[in-house]
Structure formats: structure tokens, C-alpha cells
Amino acid sequence: MAKPIKRVSLQSEIIKYIQSYIEEHDLKEGDRLPSQGQFIEMMQVSRTALREAVKTLEAEGIVEVKNGKGIFVGCRGRKATALESLIGFTMERESLIEALEARRAMETELMAMVVRNATDQEMDELGELTEVLMKKVRADERDTEEDKAFHEKIYLMCHNKVFYAVLKVLDEYTDRLWQFPLDIEDPFKASMPYHEMLYQALRERDIKKAQKINNKLLDCVYDDIAIAHQ
Known about the structure:
Elements: H1 10-24, H2 36-43, H3 47-59, E1 63-66, E2 70-73, H4 82-87, H5 93-117, H6 120-138, H7 144-156, H8 161-174, H9 176-179, H10 193-203, H11 207-228
Antiparallel strand pairs: 1-2
């Protein structure tokens, strides 16, 4: 018999519930999931909370919502990401720490490459992205897409296709931290002010300052992972 879920981070719990349902019932791509009404009854959550969680799952390709027909298992409902397939990463604390350690090492060199290779126009474009991001942060609005755009721009500014490709593979995995919150409210919120500071350091073309600020940004992510897995 289905049991109501606990309210830790509601969206995260709903996401986990639906993922577990897919696994436990061995559902494949295209298989129909319970209706929204059935999920609401099973989990005893609001329609709004369920809708937001389903939107997140749909963005990941784990489910597909067909208007007038229902919710179905998506193309990635049972598939691992590229990085998980290659390395066997999971959402366990040790794997997250390893991914962040790799990201820290690569981004240390990334900061130097951006300072050396980025054009003034690219710096202006990064400034515009930073302004949009910080407006969202100060208004306490959801800023996931703006944050992704900020980091994506920095990756491109290194002007090294191989380095960019490797960073994107890593990002494919760490991005899931945003899509599937770690049972904490406002994950990584403490890191947001460092984005503006990082832009300023890059704008000044100060390698050591940029590296130091980027490390502080990643430290905030480490701290949230530690809290989530206590």
C-alpha cells in the first residue's frame, strides 16, 4: 500500500518517488505512468507540487507529458548519463565529491585560459549574463537556467574545443545536482554571490583572483553536499 511521502524537500521527494516507481515496475520508454490524480492520491501532495516535479523530470527526459493522454516514461527514463555510463557515477556522496574534485582541477586551468584567450566582446557578453543572473538572485527567483548559461559562457571563452568538450561531459553529471535537489531548500544558494565576483576577476584578467573566487564558489557546493548527506 502506498504511503505518503515525508516533507523534507518536497520536489526532491516527489522526483525520487516517481523515479522509484519507474524502476520498481520495470517500466520502459513510452509506458504510461499513473495519472496526476493517482499520483496525488498515492503521495498525498498538492497538484502544484506534483506539476513542478513533473516539469523537472520532463526537462531531464525522464518522463514525457502528452496533453490529454497522460504521463509516460521518457527517452531517458532508464538510461544513465554519458558520464555515469563511462565511470559508473551515482548520486552518492563519494561520486559527487569526485566529480567536484575533477571540476575544481579543470576549472583552475580554465580560469587561466579564459583570462588569456577571451575577447573583450566575450567579457561584455559574460557581464550581461551575470547581470541577468544576479537580478534573479536578488529577487529570490529560480535562477537555474541563468546559472547554467553563465558557466557555459565561461567554458566557451577558453577557446579550446577539447577542454570545452571534457568540461561539458563533467557538467552533464554535476548539472543533475540542480535538477534533483539534495533534500535541502535552496541548494547552492550560498555560492551565488561569488558569480558576480568571479566575473569581475575575469574582467580584470586577474588569474589568481579568479581561481581563488572559483574555489570559494565550489566550496559552497561541497558544504551543501556535506549537509545533505549528514
